[in-house]
Specification:
Blueprint (H helix, E strand, L loop, with lengths): L1 H11 L23 E4 L7 E5 L4 E5 L2 H16 L3 H17 L1
Antiparallel strand pairs: 1-2, 2-3
Helix pairs in contact: 1-3
Length: 99
């Protein structure tokens, strides 16, 4: 099942509005404070969903979203580019299919 999920991510990432980046473990800890979802829109300001299993909230405009835009920049800087990410995911899927 995992190989199908990984291959589906590679397929989705070929769409022009979807970016998938992989940060290998060798690149160190993620420079973000925890899980969040960043939603950018063409005709509206971005919003951020921050949450865990205990609470969640949406942040809008200004400082509420700017620190998360900075975190995305830091994460992207550590991540492999799309071709490298797709290649790594494809190799991992193949490894799962062999086992």
């Amino acid at each position: 099942m995992m190989s199908k999920q990984i291959r589906h991510l590679v397929w989705l990432a070929q769409r022009p509005h979807i970016n998938v980046y992989v940060i290998p473990f060798r690149h160190g800890a993620y420079p973000a404070g925890g899980p969040f979802s960043f939603y950018g829109f063409r005709l509206a300001p971005p919003i951020v969903h921050v949450g865990d299993r205990h609470a969640s909230t949406f942040l809008e405009l200004g400082a509420g979203t700017s620190q998360y835009q900075a975190a995305i920049g830091a994460l992207t800087a550590k991540a492999l580019n799309f071709a490298e990410s797709a290649g790594l995911m494809t190799r991992i899927a193949a490894d799962h299919e062999r086992s």
